[in-house]
Amino acid sequence: MPGEILDNQGKGEASWSWPPIHPEFRLFAAIGAGLCLVAALLGWETLAWPLGALTVGIVAFFRDPRRVTPTGDRFIVSPADGLVTLIQKVPPPRELTVDDGSGRPGLKDEPVTRVSIFMSVFDVHINRAPIGGTVRRVVYIPGKFVNADLDKASEENERQHVMIERGDGLVLCFTQIAGLVARRIVPFIKPGDMLASGQRVGLIRFGSRVDVYLPEGTEPRVIMGQKVTAGETILAEIGEQLQIEGIYQ
């Protein structure tokens, strides 16, 4: 049940169910189904079957499963499903450091830890808020559509920066990046909106990436090559700087 509190002591009820589908699927699924129907009526079975499979794949792409988000002031949860492909110290994007005229300061123009999460076409593409707070900036930037798995995608691709500020003044930013196949970033939020941790903030269609810029003095609790889940995986704990190693096996 949405909004129900569950814990590690057995509180609450959990059961498997088919994930809901986000309404964005309708147009694309209708096109696929229409082409499949035309091919079937014309007797082109070798084409109709792949088109039918494509339609099912489109519906699956827009699935929007419910998630259980850990609660706690120190937790930064993953904003995306996917694979951690880059962890680097980099300067934050200029759009997040310059004065935007709102009277609220942006990030310091100093290197921070960036965690990049690559979403393949098989991952859920609904993005979620890594922390709760107020949306201070949403900056859309048109650009290219190179492979989102490449480092240069952060500076060259179509992207959208989001800045969230908590009540205690903590600021966290993340960037939605379109990829080689992705062609549209669909926002669900705007500046001034109040968000809860794990709340849906948007989606990127057909393969993409999300960069998270961790606050100063915070290192990730995930490692390179790890699979993460939006709204559930704890990406980092604020103020923690532990080194974590893993074995690829």
From TrEMBL:
The active site is at S208. InterPro entries: PS_Dcarbxylase (IPR003817), PSD-A (IPR033175). The keyword Lipid metabolism applies. The record marks G207, S208 as: Cleavage (non-hydrolytic). Binds 1 pyruvoyl group covalently per subunit. Its cofactor is pyruvate. It is an enzyme of class 4 (lyase). The modification Pyruvic acid (Ser) is found at S208. Keywords: Cell membrane, Decarboxylase, Lipid biosynthesis, Lipid metabolism, Lyase, Membrane, Phospholipid biosynthesis, Phospholipid metabolism, Pyruvate, Zymogen. It catalyses: a 1,2-diacyl-sn-glycero-3-phospho-L-serine + H(+) = a 1,2-diacyl-sn-glycero-3-phosphoethanolamine + CO2. It is a peripheral membrane protein. Its main location: membrane. NCBIfam families: PRK05305.1-2 (NF003678), PRK05305.1-3 (NF003679), PRK05305.2-5 (NF003685). This is Phosphatidylserine decarboxylase proenzyme.
